[in-house]
Structure prediction request, 136 residues.
Amino acid sequence: MYEEDIIYYILMLKGGEYTFRIVRYLILIDWRYEELYGSKLTNFKYTLMPHTLSIEGFNDLLSRLKFVEKITSNGQTGKMIYLKLKGRVKINIPTNIMQIIEQVIRETEGLDDFTLNSIVVNSIKYKRLLSKTCTY
Prediction:
């Protein structure tokens, strides 16, 4: 599908970003797409936990991204991975998907990590999904 291009586009819009934040953008993008079109946009398998989430195989995907530089550092909460684009990347996603990504980025601009995470894990949709299953 568009998983790699979506990550490239997020990095292009943001100039670089931490993987923690990218995972939250991705689930918000999937939710927005599902609201509009009736199904998830990506094939990501999100693992849902009460206070956080992850994407199954996400680190493997990141290692396959040819145009991404990974910068690893140690933060207060553990290892942090910052991603930024290496050079120019041709983005191959339709305009409607680009608009969804841009909207999610705009709506979350300026939020700290705690607030961004809270928007996801405290949402009615997340709580409903978590009560039924641990994946989405």
Remarks:
- The mean pLDDT is 95.
